[in-house]
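We store sequence, tokenised fold; for instance:
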Amino acid sequence: MTPITVSSKYQIVIPREARQKLGITSGTRLQAIPEATGLRLVKEPSIDELRGLLKGMPVQDSKIRSKQDRSLP
């Protein structure tokens, strides 16, 4: 585990090994989640990583949805 220091502007530097392992590059967005024992940083998935995530999920019958909506590509 590599220690991280908070700067006077409350900024941190994520160690190179962690950035490479998680694929964090300049512009990558992270979510900071406070926990009882500290802070968890979670990488937000990109649009490309989310593409196809819902593919194949069954569409449940609903009074709101029309048959035309169910046939979208």
